[in-house]
Amino acid sequence: MELRAVNLNLLASLAALLEERSVTRAAARMGVTQSAMSSSLAQLRALFEDPLFRRGAHGIEPTPRALSLAAPLSEAMRLLEQTLAPEAFDAATSRRTFVLAASDHVELVVLPRLLRRLEKVAPGVRVEVRPWGLHEVPAMLARGEADLMIGFYGALPPRHEAELLFDDAYTCVVRRSHPRVKQRLTLESWLELGHVLVSQQSGARGSVDRALEARGLTRKIGAQVSHFLLVPLLVARTDLVAAISESVADAFAAPLGLRRFPPPVPLPAGRVGQVWHEQMTADAGHRWLRGIIRDVVGTGRGARSAHGRQMPKPPVSQP
């Protein structure tokens, strides 16, 4: 007997008949009429080439063939129901490892809060972070090598989805005893100083460069580094200046003795979001993780995919 030739509804009817030992009660259980259940029984008899049930004193009695089918049929129905049931994720008992692609800036802002929450609600869940400092969506999401990218990004590749998490405005920092910056940071002195640029790409331009070019101005790059969190230390030990995220300045300005100033030209805020491949959208554990991350950063903005739902505006690069 080939499974593809079997109407699975007949097997459900057989399971009901075996448990109820009554055509009337089996019909009620299946939500069909008594005549429909009688028709199903006739098809089952033809399928198994056996009467399956005979009339008894208190309903219908299964034949030996029907009794031999009871246990394997019950197990098969249980497995089928389990397969078709909505996927569940129990955070309290899960031992799942989630892989995040993120820059050190995002690790600083998001990871401590995320790990504190996991300690409370999902002590067995583990987070593994893969370094990702580029302002684009990594291919590792589509390959299934990472669950989420959290950071700056531009256009979404096809079959990816994104959710804006937070905006992070920029502030300018110099060391406290800087010999050329006194009470305020003027545009003139700002342009005369060497700037720190964060990028992993040669010849990159940041938000400061674009803002200055719009005014016909340029700046001098004193150093280009690949990690955000190195910038405060460099500024603290040199006469360089840097425009950094306020969240980074909040963590390092006081310990390193940095002075903060408003940027002499307006700079758009950096926009940090979480991005994932659509193959993970319906995954119960993945949905839970996205919700936890959204909650710990204190926002709840609508997600949009590359197919036309609401998306955050393209974020800007680190100055």
Structure, explained:
- There is one protein chain.
- With 319 residues, the protein is α/β, with parallel strands linked by helices.
- It has three domains: 3-84, Winged helix-like DNA-binding domain superfamily/Winged helix DNA-binding domain (Arc Repressor Mutant, subunit A); 97-168 and 270-305, Periplasmic binding protein-like II (D-Maltodextrin-Binding Protein, domain 2); 170-261, D-Maltodextrin-Binding Protein, domain 2.
- It is 37% helix and 22% strand.
- It has ten helices and 13 strands.
- It has helices at 8-20, 23-30, 34-48, 64-84, 104-121, 187-192, 207-213, 231-237, 246-256, 284-296, and strands at residues 53-56, 59-62, 97-102, 126-131, 148-151, 160-168, 170-175, 194-198, 220-225, 242-245, 258-261, 270-277, 303-305.
- It has a six-stranded mixed sheet, with helices on one face. It has a three-stranded antiparallel sheet with strand order 10-7-11.
- Helix 5 (104-121) links the parallel strand 3 (97-102) and strand 4.
- Helix 2 (23-30) crosses helix 3 (34-48).
- The chain is rod-shaped and about 105 Å long.
- It starts with 7 loop residues before the first helix and ends in a 14-residue tail after the last strand.
- Mean pLDDT is 88; it is low at 299-317.
